[in-house]
Each structure stands twice: as structure tokens, then as C-alpha cells.
Design a protein that fits this description.
The chain is mainly beta and about 270 residues long. It has one domain: Protocatechuate 3,4-Dioxygenase, subunit A (Sandwich). Helix content is about 5%, strand content about 25%. The strands form 2 sheets. Strands 1, 2, 3, 4, 7, 8, 9, 10 and 11 form a 9-stranded mixed sheet that branches. It has a two-stranded antiparallel sheet with strand order 5-6. The two termini are about 20 Å apart.
Length: about 270
């Protein structure tokens, strides 16, 4: 694959319009490491032995189906020359359908879903491909600066690990057609619109699953209050229960910069 023109994808490290960056941004100039440094630094490949077969399915870990619209997020990770990034550990985390995080630092007060923990992981295959099943995250209000609160568009956080401790990429994925994309200051902090477009997952009709033959609902009779009473809790693992597999699919391909070396290494 030919090299694409350079796109200024990195937002300013310290941006007064996004207050949290001011306190977190480094104050000193970056230290450029010699080419190949990350590639030669060997270390443990984090989490590979702990990736379970259903860790990629964020909807399969509760005692019942989580609330919200199920989605499939899939794609391929390649380096700048189009080569697949094989056996790489990907971790994702996100808000639930109401915009709430299971996080003690979450101060929005949005509803939590006891059947949705909001995180998952998987390994890329020989072709650099990955696939997650989840719930479309909700938008939520966030403080951007003192006295300024705006909306974060629906997004999923991605963490991609390389072959050593220092090789890690953290980024975010947004959804095509979200009306809040233009208001999300983190996304709009990417200077080049082509860079912003690379962070937006595209709807894929071919991978979308449409089906209407899920299991029958189980409810007991009304208890006099006008509310149906749920059946007793099932004891079999939720992941083994028959569920409607319908899901809207989004494709999110990730191209990592680098020139014939580890794709996690920044080349001057």
C-alpha cells in the first residue's frame, strides 16, 4: 500500500478549551527515541493468556440482556504499509446506553445498567482483524472548561498494545451520522478534518444482523399494580442462553503510523 499524505491527527496536548488537558499535558519537550527502540524492547505481552472466548462480547456478562441497541464493531489494524498487526491485544471501554460509566469518578449521575460492565478485550487474528459485540453507548454531558459543559458524542475507547510495555495506542471511535459529532470538543480538537473522519466508524449493511425470531418473553401475570412480574432468575450462564443476534454493524479500521518497523513506533 502506498504511503498516504501526512495528516495532522494529534490534537493540541494542552488546550484551554478542553480544561482537563491543561492539568495532564506534559510540560517538557518530548524525547525522541532512536528507531527500533520499542521494537527491540522485549517484555510481557499483556493479557493474552487471560483473554477468554467471550471477552469480545460486552453483552454476555450479566444475568440478563443489557439495555440498549446491540452493535457489532469490527475492523482491521494495519501499519502504514498495509501489513496486518497480528496477535495484538485490544481493550475497549465505553458508557452504557444511558451514557453512564461504572466509574467512581463519573459525576454525571446517569443511570447504570447492572448487566453491562462496559469493557471488553480480544486479540487480532493473522490478518489483523478484530470484532466486538456491544451496546451503542449513550451521549453524556461533560465539563470542557470552568463553567462550560458540552456533550460528548457516542464513542468507544480503544487501547491497542504492542509487543512491549511502551508500545501502546489509545484512541476513540465515533459513529457515523451522530448529530453530536460537531459539538464533541475532543473530536473537534483534531486539526485536520481527514483525521477526524478516520475516527468515525462507518455503518456496514453487509455485516448488520437482522432477525426477529428471538426467544419468547417470559412474564408472570400482573401483580395488581399494573406491572408484569419477571420470572424467577435463571441459573444457567447467560452467555449460553438463546438470544436474538440482531445487531447494527460498524467498521472501524485503524492504520498505525510507522515506516517498516513496529507500527507503534513514531518515526521522525
Amino acid at each position: 500500500m502506498a504511503h498516504s499524505p501526512f495528516i495532522e491527527v494529534d490534537p493540541p496536548r494542552s488546550d484551554p478549551n478542553y480544561a482537563v488537558t491543561v492539568g495532564r499535558a506534559p510540560l517538557q519537550r518530548e524525547v525522541r527515541l532512536p528507531p527500533g527502540w520499542f521494537h527491540n524492547l522485549k517484555g510481557p505481552v499483556f493479557g493474552q493468556l487471560k483473554v477468554n472466548p467471550i471477552d469480545h462480547d460486552l453483552t454476555a456478562h450479566g444475568v440478563s440482556e443489557p439495555l440498549g441497541s446491540r452493535i457489532v464493531v469490527y475492523g482491521r489494524i494495519t501499519d502504514h504499509d498495509g501489513r496486518p498487526v497480528k496477535h495484538s491485544l485490544i481493550e475497549i471501554w465505553q458508557a452504557n446506553a444511558a451514557g453512564g460509566y461504572i466509574d467512581s469518578l463519573d459525576r454525571c449521575g446517569l443511570a447504570l445498567d447492572p448487566n453491562f460492565k462496559g469493557s471488553g478485550r480480544c486479540l487480532t487474528d493473522e490478518q489483523g482483524r478484530f470484532r466486538f459485540v456491544s451496546i451503542r453507548p449513550g451521549a453524556y454531558p461533560a465539563p470542557y472548561a470552568p463553567g462550560i459543559i458540552g456533550w460528548r458524542a457516542s464513542h468507544i475507547h480503544f487501547s491497542i498494545f504492542g509487543p512491549s510495555f511502551g508500545s501502546r495506542l489509545v484512541t476513540q471511535m465515533y459513529f457515523e451520522g451522530d448529530p453530536l459529532l460537531g459539538q464533541d470538543r475532543m473530536l473537534q480538537g483534531v486539526p485536520d478534518p481527514r483525521g477526524r473522519d478516520r475516527l468515525v466508524a462507518k455503518y456496514c449493511a453487509e455485516q448488520t444482523v437482522t432477525q426477529c425470531d428471538g426467544p419468547a418473553r417470559e412474564f408472570s401475570t400482573l401483580d395488581g399494580s399494573g406491572i408484569f412480574v419477571a420470572p424467577p432468575q435463571r441459573t444457567d450462564p447467560f452467555a449460553t442462553q438463546r438470544r436474538n443476534p440482531s445487531a447494527v454493524a460498524y467498521r472501524f479500521d485503524i492504520t498505525l503510523r510507522g515506516d517498516r518497523s513496529t507500527p507503534f513506533e513514531h518515526q521522525p
